[in-house]
Amino acid sequence: VQLLESGGGLVHAGGSLRLSCVVSGITISFNAMGWYRHAPGKQRELVAQISSGGSTTYADAVKGQFTISRDNDKNTVYLQMNSLKPEDTAVYYCNAEPSSIFGSWGQGTQVTVSS
User: Fold this and answer.
1) Does residue 90 register a pLDDT over 90?
2) What is d(CA 78, CA 112) in angstroms, rounded to the nearest whole number?
3) pLDDT, the chain, mean
């Protein structure tokens, strides 16, 4: 399984980014998928997840700010991030939820939010 995240970058506080994650080697249709982030000095955390049926849940820190979606035809998961804050700075990864299902991680995409 390969996961390729993209769409990160440097933005000012209040800005938006849309992350994409293309998965190859397995179909994601039957898996719940999640976006995780790893900030310096912190543990990697799950910030958003979407079930195989499209139900979504979010960490309290990003509720109302982030939106996760999926396109099973493209084997791709997205994360729309709005009203970004400096504390959203992290490397963002996608994976199955739980992540142990795929057994590997992509390289992630860096999101840096300046104040």
Assistant:
1) yes
2) 18
3) 96
The verdict on whether omega for the bond into residue 40 sits within 30 degrees of 0, i.e. cis, is no
Which residue, 46, 50, 51, is CA-closest to 61?
46
- The tokens 């195989």 sit on which residue? 52
Q: CA separation (Å) from 78 to 13, 20, 64, 98?
A: 21, 5, 16, 17
Query: Cα 79–83–88 angle (5° rounding)?
Result: 65
Confidence of residue 21 (pLDDT cuts 50, 70, 90): very high
66-70: which pairs have CB atoms within 8 A and are 24 or more residues apart?
A: 66/35, 68/33, 68/34, 68/35, 70/28, 70/33
Q: Are 21 and 106 in contact (CB under 8 A)?
A: yes
